């Protein structure tokens, strides 16, 4: 897991600290008993056995015939067929087929088979398999025929990196079974033993079209353990084994792959450093790997020697020692024998090389390198040092939350593909919600993969890397009947998901539904791939933008090409003219003329989220402003901190945001657990210094607080205490001239990060209470996972909600009422808030893993435009494009009370982003960025 270390470096739990001393005691007892046993054995051996022992000390005379025969069986198994996915025969049965499942005939689909081929036609799902693909297909009368009317049919998506079901939703201390953190070397633990088949995540993830997942242990340990591949189809038996991809296969007869997880770099060393135990460095990590592999290698050698001795002595004469075995090394020996697929979590290029070096020293194969943030720089090492094609399982754009993840590049997927390194995209659920795996793929497409490579990265490539390329990840004859029907490849949610031929959701396209024949969904064939030529980034001071389709100025003003030719003229950073009838200036040579090809223009996007300007690497104290410490920094007025005092311009995150048209950042002080965190700042993301172009928009945007379990601390260990602190602080200062007094009287808002419906209700009451005392609290709810349940009350009391993230998940106990969207729920929370006229903003997506000690940013400011697009598309026409754009621009400005001039008015400083198409289309690119604290206008920005 990506963030495995964060909660332990900051707050080691007391029992973890005590662990070494318990271990020492155990070690002492163990050693003493060993010495005792040894002496006894020695005496016994010397007196009784030695005279008769033929060769060596460790050869006891005679083992039972049964033990001997068992050893020989094991030798035969070692020699027998290896797991095989190269089988080219078309499969005729799916071991997971459920008798009684009806045959399905899909008519008129656009079939994308996952291997880069597109077929217009029909598919038959029968006996749990893809039974036929072609034109004008039909089956017997029993079959259910569904006309999908030119919608896409793709293979079920395959996620090769998930921690779902070993960390369940809602997150509870009791259900986190991802890392056995008592020893950095636990190759012997198995995810299969911890998977909770009733985890609600399984359904939610399947609703995103994910049909198969590799569930693996986390990355706190060097050798995390064994993974397990499940289909995302809950079973009546509630059996984990029945969910397994190999359910009903006699794995003794039909050898199948095993999957191992290992990790290197920061996560293991940071955790064990906090426990004062090896490894605390990469030095220690590599040593431990070698030590374990050497021991596994020795065991394998002993087994091989035993087997050849047994083979030689087959004429009835049985060996007198047992077949050598050690359960601790069993999975590693399987790896050395080539029976297991190894998945390694690494980030730094040199960590990757270390793992490859060790794999060569000990002759094992690395199947997939996961994350490998900057490995796009070492494609040579990955490609040339090893014989197999290592798959890289990566994120398209997450980065920056820790040192080893800072050197990411959005170009990485394309670089790998060009180097003929297979690319898989994965969720690392719950780090990103696996339900949105297709969105990860869409982003990789935006940054350069082509359509075929993109789909392959979430279907056939991971399927092959799992050793399951003969069963899943393709729509080909004889493959498991796992398919997804989608409206379009890169938008919103699947219409239907079939696993082993069984429909998973009761939608209009499902055989479960009575609406099947009605086909209310409109035909919608998206336009073909946008021509994506490489461009060179440059700057200018004056531009004329023509051929614009739409300009969104603010809530009440927009221009459309329907009215006539609309254009924007910017002279030295100032809007000279905007709209229709702009006269083209005579001195044309001093302008760069940009044809927007019917693109859209919006005001600069506002990023409401953690860390921008305060931290480049949030978990590195040196590279961040630091975390509010509630113990040494009680929330007294004089201790309130101001983000403005820690602001730092420049850096990778701000640059990336600026280039994505995110021109304003609103950032609160970083805090771990403090209920009242401080005062936020609003500033221009492109600014280079405080003395240039007046980069500060507001020093005192709002007072921020956070309530809920993730923010409990030793001083205030209860949610009730957090709420009481906020109430007392406000009431005490109501008449004071300090910052809290200003908040209580409504000069600036109070923004509370909260998800629970009940906690939100309490805050609504607090607002009313303060009003009754003569105050005027401008309360804003941030987070707001369950806010839709109080939509009416929020609207009545004029309390806006900044959804953060925009697609919340029921990951917290206090956020279980999240609506996860189609095809599970009809609506989402944001739809309901919208219908009830609650003012809505969308904040930057955050780390979605239980939000342990603080809110972590992943550099997802760049996604804001697509987050808005998702909300609009997924609302089935309820939320217009314009309103969704408002969620990341003018609504936020209004909610936060930002006093900044509109950057799309004649005479004002230009502050806008222009796209070469509709920004909600994933293939559209940013064409122009103007403003954001820079006088230069950026053309064709290129993301790192
Ligand atoms: C994807 O594959 C199809 C079918 O092989 C091909 O026609 C199409 O050109 C490919 N697309 C790209 C972008 O390579
Ligand atoms: C390395 O392992 C493979 C099996 O995975 C085996 O075929 C090969 O002989 C081994 N090479 C050496 C040098 O041991
Ligand atoms: C690696 O992939 C290439 C195609 O990119 C293929 O030709 C080659 O056979 C593969 N090698 C192995 C060992 O699978
Ligand atoms: C379909 O309609 C029938 C008859 O109207 C009804 O009995 C049945 O429950 C419906 N099934 C579903 C899944 O709605
Ligand atoms: C734009 O110009 C056209 C024709 O010259 C004129 O009819 C129209 O009124 C003008 N519109 C505005 C808003 O000036």
From TrEMBL:
<dbReference type="InterPro" id="IPR032466">
    <property type="entry name" value="Metal_Hydrolase"/>
</dbReference>
<dbReference type="InterPro" id="IPR011059">
    <property type="entry name" value="Metal-dep_hydrolase_composite"/>
</dbReference>
<dbReference type="GO" id="GO:0004038">
    <property type="term" value="F:allantoinase activity"/>
</dbReference>
<keyword id="KW-0812">Transmembrane</keyword>
<dbReference type="Pfam" id="PF01979">
    <property type="entry name" value="Amidohydro_1"/>
</dbReference>
<protein>
    <submittedName>
        <fullName>23878_t:CDS:1</fullName>
    </submittedName>
</protein>
<feature type="domain" description="Amidohydrolase-related">
    <location>
        <begin position="152"/>
        <end position="487"/>
    </location>
</feature>
<dbReference type="InterPro" id="IPR050138">
    <property type="entry name" value="DHOase/Allantoinase_Hydrolase"/>
</dbReference>
<keyword id="KW-0472">Membrane</keyword>
<keyword id="KW-1133">Transmembrane helix</keyword>
<dbReference type="InterPro" id="IPR006680">
    <property type="entry name" value="Amidohydro-rel"/>
</dbReference>
<dbReference type="GO" id="GO:0006145">
    <property type="term" value="P:purine nucleobase catabolic process"/>
</dbReference>
<dbReference type="GO" id="GO:0005737">
    <property type="term" value="C:cytoplasm"/>
</dbReference>
<feature type="transmembrane region" description="Helical">
    <location>
        <begin position="28"/>
        <end position="45"/>
    </location>
</feature>
């Amino acid at each position: 897991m990506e963030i495995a270390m964060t909660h332990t470096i900051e707050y080691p739990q007391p029992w973890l600290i005590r662990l070494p001393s318990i271990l020492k005691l155990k070690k002492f007892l163990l050693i003493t008993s060993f010495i005792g046993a040894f002496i006894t054995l020695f005496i016994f051996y010397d007196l009784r056995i030695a005279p008769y022992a033929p060769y060596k000390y460790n050869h006891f005379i005679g083992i039972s015939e049964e033990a001997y025969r068992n050893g020989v069986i094991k030798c035969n198994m070692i020699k027998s067929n290896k797991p095989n996915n190269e089988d080219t025969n078309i499969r005729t049965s799916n071991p997971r087929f459920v008798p009684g499942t009806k045959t399905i005939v899909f008519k008129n689909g656009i079939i994308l088979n996952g291997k880069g081929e597109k077929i217009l036609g029909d598919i038959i799902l029968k006996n749990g398999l893809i039974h036929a693909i072609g034109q004008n297909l039909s089956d017997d009368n029993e079959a259910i025929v569904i006309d999908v009317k030119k919608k896409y049919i793709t293979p079920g998506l395959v996620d090769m990196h998930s921690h779902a079901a070993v960390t369940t939703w809602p997150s509870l201390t009791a259900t986190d079974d991802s890392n056995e953190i008592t020893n950095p070397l636990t190759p012997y633990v198995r995810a299969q033993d911890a998977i909770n088949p009733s985890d609600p995540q399984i359904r939610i993830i399947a609703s995103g079209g994910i049909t198969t997942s590799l569930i693996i242990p986390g990355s706190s340990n060097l050798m995390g353990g064994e993974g397990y591949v499940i289909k995302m189809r809950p079973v009546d038996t509630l059996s984990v084994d029945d969910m397994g991809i190999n359910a009903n296969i006699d794995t003794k007869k039909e050898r199948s792959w095993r999957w191992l997880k290992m990790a290197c770099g920061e996560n293991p060393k940071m955790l064990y450093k906090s426990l004062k135990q090896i490894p605390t460095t990469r030095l220690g990590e590599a040593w431990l790997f070698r030590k374990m592999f050497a021991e596994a290698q020795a065991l394998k050698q002993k087994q091989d020697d035993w087997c050849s001795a047994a083979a030689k002595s087959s004429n009835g004469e049985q060996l007198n020692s047992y077949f050598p075995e050690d359960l601790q090394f069993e999975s590693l020996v399987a790896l050395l024998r080539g029976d297991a697929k190894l998945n390694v979590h690494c980030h730094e290029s040199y960590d990757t090389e270390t793992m490859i070096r060790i794999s060569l020293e000990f002759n094992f194969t690395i199947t997939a390198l996961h994350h490998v943030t900057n490995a796009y720089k070492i494609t040579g090492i990955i490609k040339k040092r090893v014989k197999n094609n290592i798959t890289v399982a990566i994120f398209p754009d997450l980065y920056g939350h820790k040192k080893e993840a800072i050197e990411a590049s959005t170009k990485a997927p394309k670089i790998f593909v060009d180097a003929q390194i297979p690319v898989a995209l994965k969720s690392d659920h719950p780090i990103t919600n696996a339900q949105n795996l297709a969105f990860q793929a869409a982003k990789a497409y935006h940054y350069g993969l082509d359509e075929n490579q993109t789909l392959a990265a979430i279907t056939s490539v991971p399927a092959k890397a799992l050793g399951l390329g003969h069963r899943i990840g393709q729509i080909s004859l004889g493959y498991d009947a796992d398919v997804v029907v989608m409206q379009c490849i890169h938008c919103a949610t699947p219409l239907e998901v079939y696993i082993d031929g069984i429909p998973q959701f009761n939608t209009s396209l499902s055989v479960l539904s009575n609406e099947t024949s009605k086909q209310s969904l409109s035909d919608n064939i998206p336009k073909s791939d946008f021509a994506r030529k490489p461009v060179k980034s440059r700057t200018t001071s004056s531009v004329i933008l023509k051929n614009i389709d739409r300009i969104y100025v603010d809530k009440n003003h927009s221009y459309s090409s329907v009215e006539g030719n609309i254009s924007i003229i910017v002279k030295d950073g100032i809007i000279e003219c905007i709209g229709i009838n702009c006269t083209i200036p005579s001195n044309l040579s001093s302008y760069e003329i940009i044809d927007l090809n019917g693109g859209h223009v919006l005001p600069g996007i506002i990023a409401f989220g953690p860390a921008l300007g305060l931290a480049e690497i949030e978990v590195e104290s040196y590279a961040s402003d630091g975390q509010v410490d509630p113990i040494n920094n009680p929330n007294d007025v004089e201790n309130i901190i101001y983000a403005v005092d820690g602001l730092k311009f420049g850096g990778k995150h701000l640059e990336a945001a600026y280039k994505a048209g995110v021109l304003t950042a609103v950032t609160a002080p970083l805090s771990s657990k403090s209920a009242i965190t401080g005062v936020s700042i609003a500033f221009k993301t492109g600014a280079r210094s405080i003395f240039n172009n007046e980069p500060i928009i507001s020093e005192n945007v709002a007072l921020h607080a956070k309530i809920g379990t993730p923010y409990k601390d030793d001083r205030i260990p209860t949610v009730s205490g957090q709420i009481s602190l906020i109430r007392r602080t406000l009431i005490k200062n109501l008449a004071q001239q300090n910052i809290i007094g200003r908040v209580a009287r409504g000069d600036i808002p109070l923004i509370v990060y909260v998800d629970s419906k009940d906690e939100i209700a309490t805050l609504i009451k607090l607002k009313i209470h303060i009003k009754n005392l003569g105050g005027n609290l401008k309360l804003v709810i941030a987070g707001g996972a369950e806010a839709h349940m109080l939509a009416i009350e929020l609207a009545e009391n004029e309390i806006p909600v900044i959804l953060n993230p925009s697609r919340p998940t029921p990951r917290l106990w206090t956020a279980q009422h999240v609506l996860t969207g189609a095809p599970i729920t009809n609506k989402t929370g944001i739809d309901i808030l919208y219908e009830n006229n609650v003012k809505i903003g969308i904040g930057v997506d955050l780390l979605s893993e239980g939000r342990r000690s603080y809110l972590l940013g992943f550099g997802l400011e760049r996604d804001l435009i697509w987050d808005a697009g998702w909300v609009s598309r997924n609302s089935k026409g309820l939320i217009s494009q314009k309103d969704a754009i408002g969620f990341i621009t003018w609504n936020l400005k209004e909610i936060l009370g930002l006093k900044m001039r509109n950057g799309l008015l004649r005479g004002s400083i230009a502050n806008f982003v222009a796209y070469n198409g509709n920004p909600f289309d994933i293939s559209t690119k940013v064409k122009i960025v103007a403003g954001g604290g820079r006088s230069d206008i950026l053309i064709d920005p290129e993301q790192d």
